[in-house]
Amino acid sequence: MDYKDMKFKVWHGCDRGLCHKGCGRQDRQLNTFDWLADVPGNNQTTDLVEVQFKNTRKGYYHNVNNLDLKKGDIVAVEANPGHDIGVVTLTGRLVKLQIKKASGIKSPDDIKRVYRLAKDVDMQKYQEAKAREHATMIESRQIAKGLGLKMKIGDVEFQGDGNKAIFYYIADERVDFRQLIKDLAAAFHVRIEMKQIGARQEAGRIGGTGPCGRDLCCATWMKNFSSVSTTAARIQDISPNPTKLAGMCAKLKCCLNYEVDDYMEASRKLPSKEVLLETMDGEYHLFKTDILSGQCTYSTDKNLGANLETISAERAKEIIEMNRRGEKPLSLLEDGKAKPAKKSADLLAGADLSRFDKAKKRKKNNQQRNYNGQQGGRPQRENRRNQRDQQDNSRQQGDNRRQPNENRRPQNSNRRPNNGPRPAQQQREGATPNGRNEGRQPQKTERTQE
């Protein structure tokens, strides 16, 4: 095919339901996927738009000026007083569904208007107001501490035009902050609004990563927080460890409620813990269960795990029905056969320990045979040499035992000293380097005269 003169066109369609209009143009929290973004006439079905502000705060507004708004556009919306700056996060039919889930809207009159797309002047004021938030939060904490109020100011949000500031605080008890509002208004010269939030809302506003490795649910998609109790952990057979069950907000994890319904439905198919299984081998007590896989582990001891056997829930119910009819199976096995005898766990059972000695003796003989083959006739020559040396030593010791006596035997002047070497031995000492006894030292024997 000739691609030289062909005109190419950039494709902006969707693939498998994923579209750039539904996903992108924002990296904020609580992002909603607009799966109706490419449906023709979606934006004309309603003039409502969803606008998000700092962190997780959202609002819903009427597009009375019929602006061509898309996801990610920065707009100026109506506020009391002045105007605020936010980002469009949703348009079209899905906005109506989002309004039904929102808890802050009580009547249609609470929905305000979208003024315009943000201009450069609006963005400049917005950046100046945002630059004051951190210093304002630090100073407001010092003011609240000076008044002795038991509260924590977690965040401060300025309105887009800088005329209003929202102070988010956490308190376990009711706080009388009338004097605090007066001091804050005198210090910052803006309109003050106090808004109480919980620990979960604070974690959602700050954001973070959970123990699962993903972003926090309260910071990505969760808007309404339902109560979580330890009953959910007990139903799912989770260990009641506070450090494992608590989330980033130091409260029980919201995800404990996600699968409770599935676990409750699956647990109805399992046998009761109070029912015993009677077999020819003995009685079995329910030790533990795997709820999702439907496996039950039984033990012969009620409190300890002894002779554990794992069977399916259907097999357990079958044995229960047999016990009600007065029948007892041979074992808990599926086929009803007797339980096979366990083999000995002793690895040395029936083994001969002397097998190692035989191997060592055979190895030693092989090494000696190899050594003799390498050395040739040298060991035999060494043995003959050692025998001659022993004979010489015995003769020398016999001569030393004789005591000198001039009357009985004349002394021979030519006789060698007692401690001196024999002539043959002297000859061996003076042998050439190639001699047989090269470097051999004469053996001297000393005898004490009695």
TrEMBL record:
It comes from the Bacteria. NCBIfam families: RicT_YaaT_fam. Residues 379-409, 437-450 have a biased composition (Basic and acidic residues). This is PSP1 C-terminal domain-containing protein. Residues 112-197 form the PSP1 C-terminal domain. One of its GO terms (cellular component) is cytoplasm. PROSITE patterns: PSP1_C. Residues 331-450 are annotated as: Disordered. Residues 410-428 have a biased composition (Low complexity). It comes from Prevotella histicola F0411. InterPro entries: PSP1-like, PSP1_C. PANTHER family: PROTEIN PSP1.
